[in-house]
Inverse folding.
């Protein structure tokens, strides 16, 4: 049964939605008529990207991290019409001490008046779930154009780790895709039944790490063939997930010389502005003025972005270790010790998570050995190289490009990227140049940082022109 947002105030999905919004506001709020003290950073720390060339692009700022903030403050104009359902592939994980009875992951549904309208599976970025406001912003945008929408949750969210991940330590795209694909089949079945729908076409759209989720889900569909997917759209993709995660670690280095007092002041400053943002109606047309009114430097914003992702990582680490305790967290994983355990987990980086948790998971090792071409168990070096090679989107797309039957079908793909994205990867440009015929609708915008063009009319027009083909 679907859950009506308006009548489900006690449901955990609704609570998660508001907690997500509160977390967003805690770290990224706008100084509009606020009495909060502006923190001074006297260093000249604006960080520019050499790929920015076209200064005529209609964007209010060329600051990378300030641009990236715009995607985080996006939220839907209304929560009406959204329906949620919780799913689990692992009912046996209901008794995890810290996460007792939380072994479910939310999926959001937006139906249209047309039962035959195309269906879009939307995949949000790292750590986000289906109830994250920025995910619902994109879903609402797509629905307003006449499409049905199913919003998945990130494979790198603690909810996905507990409810869906086979390994319990998501982070390897091909394996995570098998779990995600199972959720997609369940969600699709429920969508058809609840909306009495017969969608004419199916598209996948993913942003940031969600672009990787969408790509590997599409690849899994080439094997299982449950859906006829005609379009794959990647928005600011994390082309090499491992490199992208390491970049998120680097963001915290911008605050390495900040004192604890300075860090607290930054967060207090943000907290003091929460009411200002809540009282304002954030719409696409007023985002430029909101962005330009932010009184934080690039270093400060970069550090806050890094802190936001590190916070979501600590939840993921606690979830993974509750399922398969590798002894990474020394604090007993009990409700009594949750604050101490969370503090310990927050000291671990994405690199730590990848090296000491993802790569050490016995389930993943067994999976790689099973799919190896050798009789003998693969060595540690072979294992890590295989993981890195098979997680890379450039390798995946190159494999697809040799599939003549795939590109002779109705299948089309497009990439929308910003040249000053702090997760920019040169392989993106290389891929587009090598596959001009298959991606003629791809666009690389000169500005916008990471996901900072979602609200820009030019991007929205390009996206929906491509969907309408």
């Amino acid at each position: 049964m679907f859950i009506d947002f308006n009548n489900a105030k006690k449901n955990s999905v609704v609570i998660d939605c508001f907690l997500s919004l509160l977390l967003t506001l805690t770290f990224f709020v706008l100084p509009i008529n606020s009495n909060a003290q502006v923190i001074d950073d006297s260093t000249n720390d604006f960080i520019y990207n050499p790929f920015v060339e076209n200064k005529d692009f209609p964007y209010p700022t060329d600051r990378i991290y300030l641009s990236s903030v715009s995607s985080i403050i996006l939220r839907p104009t209304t929560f009406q019409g959204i329906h949620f359902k919780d799913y689990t592939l692992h009912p046996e994980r209901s008794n995890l001490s810290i996460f007792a009875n939380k072994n479910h992951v939310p999926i959001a549904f937006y139906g249209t008046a047309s039962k035959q309208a195309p269906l879009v599976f939307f995949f949000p970025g790292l750590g986000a779930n289906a109830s994250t406001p920025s995910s619902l912003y994109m879903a609402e945008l797509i629905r307003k154009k006449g499409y049905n929408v199913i919003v998945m949750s990130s494979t790198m969210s603690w909810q996905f780790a507990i409810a869906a991940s086979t390994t319990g330590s998501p982070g390897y795209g091909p394996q995570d895709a098998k779990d995600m694909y199972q959720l997609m089949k369940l969600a699709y079945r429920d969508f058809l039944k609840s909306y009495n729908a017969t969608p004419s076409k199916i598209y996948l759209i993913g942003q940031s790490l969600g672009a990787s989720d969408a790509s590997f889900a599409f690849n899994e569909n080439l094997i299982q063939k449950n859906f006829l997917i005609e379009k794959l759209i990647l928005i600011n993709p994390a082309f090499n997930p491992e490199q992208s995660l390491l970049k998120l670690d680097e963001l915290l280095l911008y605050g390495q010389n900040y004192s604890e007092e300075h860090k607290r002041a930054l967060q207090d400053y943000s907290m003091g502005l929460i009411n200002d943002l809540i009282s304002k109606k954030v719409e696409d047309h007023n985002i430029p003025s909101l962005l330009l009114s932010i009184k934080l430097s690039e270093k400060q914003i970069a550090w806050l972005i890094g802190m936001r992702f590190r916070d979501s990582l600590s939840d993921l680490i606690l979830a993974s270790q509750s399922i398969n305790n590798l002894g990474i967290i020394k604090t007993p994983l009990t409700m009594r010790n949750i604050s101490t355990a969370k503090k310990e987990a927050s000291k671990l980086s994405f690199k730590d998570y990848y090296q000491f948790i993802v790569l050490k998971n016995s389930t993943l090792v067994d999976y790689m050995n099973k799919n190896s071409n050798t009789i003998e168990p693969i060595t540690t070096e072979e294992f890590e190289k295989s993981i890195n090679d098979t997680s890379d989107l450039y390798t995946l797309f190159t494999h697809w490009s040799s599939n003549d039957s795939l590109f002779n079908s109705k299948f089309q793909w497009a990439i929308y990227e910003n040249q000053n994205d702090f997760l920019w990867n040169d392989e993106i440009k290389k891929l587009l140049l090598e596959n001009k015929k298959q991606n003629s609708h791809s666009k690389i915008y000169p500005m916008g940082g990471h996901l900072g063009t979602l609200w820009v009319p030019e991007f929205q027009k390009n996206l929906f022109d491509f969907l309408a083909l």
